[in-house]
Amino acid sequence: MRILAIDTATKQSSITLWENDKEIWEFLFATSSKDYGETILLNLDMLLRRSNWNLEDIDLYVISKGPGSFTGLRIGMMVIKTLAQVFNKPISAPSYLDVLAYQNKFPGIIFSILPARKNELHLASYRNWKDFQKIEKEEVVSIEEFLKRINILQEEALLVGEIPEEIKMKLPNNVIFTSKSSSFLRGASLAELGFLMFNKGEYFDPLELNPYYGQKSSAEINWEKLHGKKE
Amino acid sequence: MYILGIETSCDETSIAIVKDGEEIIENLIFSQIETHKIFGGVVPEVASRLHMEVLNKIFKLAMEKSNLSLKDIDLISVTQGPGLVGALWIGITFAKTLAYALKKPLVGVNHLVGHIFANFLRKDPPNFPFISLVVSGGHTEWILVEDYDRYRLLGKTLDDAAGEAFDKVARLLGLGYPGGPAIEKAAEKGRLIFDFPKIKCERELDISFSGLKTSMLYLIKNLQKEGREIPINDLAFSFQYRVIEELLERSFIALNKFQTSTLVLAGGVVANKYLQKRFSEVSKRENIKLFMPPPILCTDNAAMIASAGYYLYNKGKVDGLDLSADPSLEIF
Lengths: 231, 332
Hints:
The structure holds two protein chains of two kinds. By secondary structure, chain A is of the alpha/beta class.
């Protein structure tokens, strides 16, 4: 099975061509909210030329659905949705936090972390020593709340992702964090996890997939502060 | 030649299929206005999220309704700017991906140029040269159009766009959002009771709405201070009257100055019936050929983008995979 996987959730973006037990082409590149859209198709075109793969040969599209940069998520997902729509193929869409946990084997509990708004984190927890298991799904918690949870843990824990210094300084002895190079999503891991999910029947029709933002827009938050919750 | 048009520059998600630049096969428009209403204006992040949700669905629907297949599309035309940057990127990324997957040429179109081309979606389009007034929620500009790809800016608003001024004055009068249709409706029951001062700018083809807005604010404050009832309908009419007379006056100055006899109106404000009536009356009297798009083509839509893309492509314009959103794209 041939997979095209794209991740544009954070400043480190990637495009990966992946075929199980055969070859992997992965292009990892730095982006910013200004140039996600400018570079993505040029890079995809370059990778397809280098690999001699054709879009017509892709069986499954994979995208990291979020959380992350709002603009980045939309650009990557729009490319994937449109290709899947044109070639009539399914999409599997692990969350960014899923992939972080998937690519770091650990015998205890794993917390995947990505900074959200000020003093807040996107958080999800996993186990992967035997099977890959999601324990708590994506949520947004304050740094304070996260430290509280970590401090009452009775077992070994691994933190993966962009971890604020404030947290690193306050970790108990049973909690460690990964090296920098394992802390951002790797394209091959995204493709592999997407493949596993597809085999379990977890995939989307291109028209029904949308980014997981994890947060409302500032305007909606301010509106709710003034008027109470919508609906 | 079938052109696919894509428009996501503000709060309308639209996909169109146009044949040879003039014949609309499909023009599907999904308006987000109901969502933005509660915020009293367009919220960029909310607009981007909605474009993302619906664009591929609208494309599928347009293809199904047209009975065409993907390989029938010969050209892809997309709004490049001006507009909300995040919203523009949705349409552009979709357009680039589609052009790449289908191996078809891509053209990025200026949104303002698109509005002018709403007048080319007919059998007898305007002849060059002509004066165009583009007047919408984001623009108030007089442009001399000499060819499909030759534009000269003659004058523009120095502050708010006309549509924006309608929104702000509607808020002052408690008439709600969007302000254009709200003021037009109130004005139907109103009459001219207040002569707002004429708008003066240093250059005769520039315009400014801030003074008019301030006059309205003080007028309302004074009436409130005196404990008098606010004649909302009459004030709506008086304001609308002043704005439209000013637009009319400058359009005819431009026509005379450049010795042209064709006037082409474009943009959402052109849907205003009183504006249509006044421009028609004066054009007839002055022997000017007047073009106005039907209301559905005045507001943002992808058919006009497809038409503009067709004519620009025939002039040799074509874009690559590096096409980028430009929120303040100029046409000159």
